[in-house]
Specification:
The chain is of the alpha+beta class and 943 residues long. It contains 33 helices and 35 strands. The strands form ten sheets. Strands 5-21-22-3-23-24 form a six-stranded mixed beta sheet, with helices on both faces. The chain has a six-stranded antiparallel beta sheet with strand order 9-8-10-7-11-12. A six-stranded mixed beta sheet has the order 29-32-33-27-34-35, with helices on both faces. α11 (380-390) packs across α12 and α15 (455-477) packs across α16 (494-508). The radius of gyration is 36 Å and the shape is globular. The model has no long low-confidence stretch (mean pLDDT 91).
């Protein structure tokens, strides 16, 4: 496929820190953009190329449509030539709704619904027999076959096993001209005012006609008419009863069980959707989990009395209406509020928990009079449940949730679908069974399916199967073989979510598109890297251009073209320092080239720390796919938890260990995954978790506010003589509240001019010239600098400027230590790169006073970091460990793993094939293990 332009040409790009650069990118190639974190890679890929592609697409709409879309800004670039339609696959774009699953994102579930609606066989949930459905002509044919020469009644079922007296129903039937009904198996004449026992369950059928079956025209007509009328009244079902033997047969236009007569509606794709009322389980509304009251949380200790706070939600006895009601219940059932809860009669407990509405009398023996009482009590359980379901207040919901457990829905077994939908089967499997299989099992099942279904089903399913198999194959190609389709998208890591979207894109087989990916190798084990690179190459080979922002060595070496941005980060970056094939890159003298050629490297420590001799032991962890795992964490060391994607690392550390420690030290509410016991908590005194969630996403958030150093700086300014004379408080120096800020731009430094259907224009505020504060505030100076000047300082300048103020110095020094000396204190958080945001977060946590017994948990801290950035980061982490702290890192990056003192390798595979500790020990011990995938790659690094 030949294009006239073989390149994408960018001239004069100036977004963020780019220094007016010109760059030419070859089309239909795999191009990698690399460089230090914060050097301007994302500014070029996303804020320039992708933003321009989006803008051009929106420009094609009419001016009327554009005013609703909110225009997109024109990126700061002179011109871009040769741009094709752009699709960006970033990390933070998955849906956090509990209704979004791997199956729905990849569209495999949509095809499964179609497959089951069109090709599956229905079975009865009562008897397990195959359901049948007939046309009216077929029913007539069967009646002749089975009942010729016999007398039959044709009936129409109207009530099935329900309670009620049904007087109105009988009157209605009589009005329509029918004379007889069959009630609970007995045929009776319809009388005026007829009714049945309202507290018993009944079956009621209308007798439509009584016919002697013989081959003549009149009988034929009568049977045809009777079938039509019976179907109308009986919701597409009729019954035939033979007069002598009383044998009952059911016939239905829709699917029906031949023995018990239950029927299903005709299957539509909606019947298999848990997001549609037709398919969702009515108990959990299609979520697969329900919140249920846990009595043990309401009554933590049955030995205490109600008076002393035995009911946790109520607390100790007060003179409130609820306790008055409890006293009345005590009067009725003969107990006092000072009795232990375990001695209260069961009937009384039932009323206290589930409520009651009763009147009763008590005779006073002393005074000889009778007192009447009325109990009208909602019940503690019902009250909590109603608050949880109906309250608008988040804090009340959180309070109610403390007494509830999230359990798998018992009605649907977590499959999210109603009972009928789970009895449509193909090769003995329902759609609920398929979504629980991991992708490898599913692929195998679909390969074998055609041998187990009829020819007619094969014809119907052939196209659908083609689509499903292709999509499953793409999931396997990007290394997600351990996921199942029912996995909620909330629980996916950034890298997993991105690779799912990549699989969906490969599945759409578009051609001539420019794909931009943001570090797709995050969270991917070296073993699966090969598959990912092949997927990207296959996207390129069908005629797309693939542009990847990446630091991974393998990816850089396999690229067709590499663009290196630098030389440093922030204001010292933003230039193209080399571009060409990977071979040409190696000849350059850039930092990236030196790391790839091996001239520079992260040194392997000469000896491993053995720790302080104490350890933390976790026994019997069984959450998700963990198979009764017991692990020991030697304290005072740097521990790396490794293993292929999906092996259970996050379950062990983030969902089991961290919630246990967090609950122990800070009474947190998150419930850890199941485990048997933990020992050694007394050896640590606090836990700090640094994960991948982004820091503030508003332009008002910046490194100074996030690390809380700005509060200290504001306090410092209030202590200057001039500020004390004027009586200024810290709020005076905040750009978020009225008082000291410039009111024209409300402290943002820029004014937004709305241009209706064109993008908004931002201009510097003419009142404060972008300084954010009013004149009076800016007159207050510390060492000659105003508060606005301080926000415009780089961190490096701030370290020198504040060296005599320990509280401020400690915080800015930590930001400098993690390699962010080049950013300004007031830089908007929205303009920080992913790697920078991650390190700001790290700096905030690291600047807290460490006790020497702190337990740090870092989840893939190398996200978005270049080789050089990793070296700086590891120096900071090593300093922490030198002070006696323990650092646990979940990581795939070999540069980090080779520096660890102790490795815990989980696996050997992902999903069901994982969840055990393959090996643990120093890196030198781990590489001897033959089963570990990590050992194989680590051996090459260490040799």
């Amino acid at each position: 496929m030949q294009h006239t332009e073989e390149t994408i040409e960018i001239i004069g790009a100036r977004a963020h820190n780019l220094k007016n650069i010109d760059v030419t990118i070859p089309r239909e190639k795999l191009v990698v953009i690399t460089g230090l974190s914060g050097s301007g890679k994302s500014s070029l890929a996303f804020d320039t190329i992708y933003a321009e592609g989006q803008r051009r697409y929106i420009e094609t709409f009419s001016a009327y449509a554009r005013q609703f879309l909110g225009g997109l800004e024109r990126p700061d670039v002179d011109k871009i030539d040769g741009l094709s339609p752009v699709i960006a696959i970033e990390q933070k774009t998955t849906n956090k709704s509990p209704r979004s699953t791997v199956g729905t994102i990849t569209e495999i579930y949509d095809f499964l619904r179609l497959l089951y609606a069109r090709a599956a066989d229905a079975y009865s949930y009562n008897t397990g027999e195959k359901m049948i459905s007939y046309s009216d002509d077929k029913i007539k044919e069967l009646i002749y076959e089975e009942f010729e020469g016999k007398r039959i009644n044709i009936l129409s079922p109207v009530v099935r096993s329900r309670k009620g007296h049904y007087r109105e129903l009988f009157e209605q039937i009589a009005k329509q001209g029918f004379l007889k009904v069959r009630v609970d198996g007995e045929i009776r004449d319809l009388d005026h005012g007829m009714k049945v026992d309202r507290y018993k369950t009944h079956d009621i059928e209308i007798v439509i006609d009584r016919i002697a079956v013989k081959q003549d025209e009149d009988t034929d007509k009568r049977i045809t008419e009777a079938i039509k009328v019976a179907m109308h009244h009986g919701d597409d079902i009729l019954m035939v009863i033979e007069h002598e033997s009383n044998e009952v047969r059911f016939y239905s236009r829709s699917l029906m069980c031949p023995t018990s007569g239950i029927s299903y509606p005709s299957p539509e794709p909606n019947n298999f959707s848990f997001n549609s009322p037709k398919g969702a389980c009515p108990d959990c509304n299609g979520l697969g989990i329900v919140n249920e009251i846990n009595i043990n949380k309401i009554i933590p200790n049955p030995k205490t009395s109600i008076k002393n706070g035995g009911f946790a939600p109520l607390g100790e006895q007060k003179s409130t209406w609820i306790f008055k009601q409890l006293e009345l219940i005590g009067e009725k059932f003969g107990f006092k509020l000072s009795d232990p809860i375990e001695s209260i009669p069961a009937e009384a407990m039932d009323m206290i928990l589930n409520g009651g509405n009763e009147k009763f009398s008590v005779v006073s023996k002393v005074m000889g009079i009778t007192k009447d009482y009325k109990i009208d009590f909602e019940g503690i359980s019902n009250f909590i449940k109603n608050q949880f379901e109906q309250s608008d207040s988040q804090s009340i919901k959180r309070w109610a949730k403390e007494f509830m457990d999230e359990n798998e829905c018992s009605a649907c077994g977590g499959s999210r679908l109603r009972k009928e939908s789970l009895y449509f089967k193909l090769n003995d499997k329902s759609i609920g069974d398929l979504v629980q299989m991991d992708v490898v099992e599913l692929a195998q099942w679909f390969e074998e399916l055609p041998q187990h279904i009829s020819e007619k089903q094969q014809i119907i399913a052939s196209e659908i199967l083609k689509e499903i198999k292709a999509r499953i194959r793409f999931l396997l190609d990007v290394g997600l073989d351990y996921l199942n389709l029912n996995r909620s998208s909330k629980t996916l890591s950034g890298g997993e979510a991105q690779r799912i979207r990549l699989a969906t894109q490969i599945g759409s087989q578009l051609v001539g598109v420019l794909y931009i990916l943001d570090e797709p190798s995050i969270g991917l084990h070296q073993r699966d890297n090969e598959r990912l690179i092949k997927s990207l190459e296959s996207l390129r080979d069908i005629g797309n251009s693939v542009l990847v922002v990446e630091h991974d060595k393998d990816m850089i070496e396999r690229a067709d073209y590499v663009i290196d941005i630098g030389p440093k980060a922030g204001r010292f970056g933003g230039q193209i320092i080399s571009q060409g094939t990977p071979k040409e890159l190696l000849k350059e003298n850039t930092i990236t080239a030196q790391y790839i050629s091996g001239k520079m490297q992260i040194e392997i420590p000469t000896e491993r720390r053995t720790g302080n001799g104490k350890s933390l032991k976790l026994t019997g962890a069984t959450g998700n796919n963990l198979k009764n795992v017991s692990v020991e964490f030697p304290l005072g060391t740097m521990i790396c938890v490794t293993g292929v994607s999906g092996s259970g690392k996050s379950t062990l550390i983030n969902e089991t260990l961290y919630p246990i420690l967090n609950t122990h030290f800070y009474n947190a509410v998150k419930k850890p995954q199941p485990y048997k016991k933990i020992e050694g908590l007394e050896h640590i005194d606090k836990v700090i978790d640094i994960d991948q969630s982004p820091i503030g996403r508003t332009p008002r958030s910046n490194p100074a506010t996030y690390t809380d150093v700005f509060s200290e700086i504001r306090s410092l300014f209030t202590q200057t003589p001039e500020a004390m004379i004027r009586g200024y408080k810290p709020g005076r120096f905040s750009f978020n509240v009225s008082g000291g800020r410039c009111e024209t731009c409300e402290g943002s430094g820029v004014r937004t001019i709305e241009m209706s259907f064109l993008p908004d224009v931002y201009v510097e505020c003419e009142t404060c010239q972008g300084k954010r504060f009013n004149r009076e505030t800016l007159e207050i100076r510390y060492k000659g600098k105003s508060i606005s000047d301080v926000l415009n300082m780089t961190v490096d300048e701030a370290v020198d400027f504040f060296e005599n103020i320990p509280k401020i110095y400690r915080k800015v020094k930590t930001i400098q230590d993690v390699g962010l000396g080049y950013i300004t204190l007031g830089q908007q958080s929205t303009t920080l790169s992913g790697g920078e945001a991650q390190r700001i977060k790290l700096a905030t946590e690291l600047s807290k006073k460490d006790t020497g017994n702190t337990f740090y948990i870092l989840d893939e801290p190398t996200t978005g970091l270049h080789f050089e950035d990793i070296r700086i980061l590891m120096d900071v982490i090593n300093k922490l460990v030198e002070k006696g702290n323990t650092v646990v890192i979940i990581e795939h990056n070999l540069d980090v793993i080779k520096l660890a003192d102790y490795i815990i390798d989980i696996g050997p595979e992902g999903g069901k094939g994982g969840g055990t500790v393959v090996c643990s020990g120093t890196p030198e011990e781990v590489i001897k293990n033959k089963k570990s995938h990590t050992a194989l790659f680590l051996k090459k690094e260490l040799s």
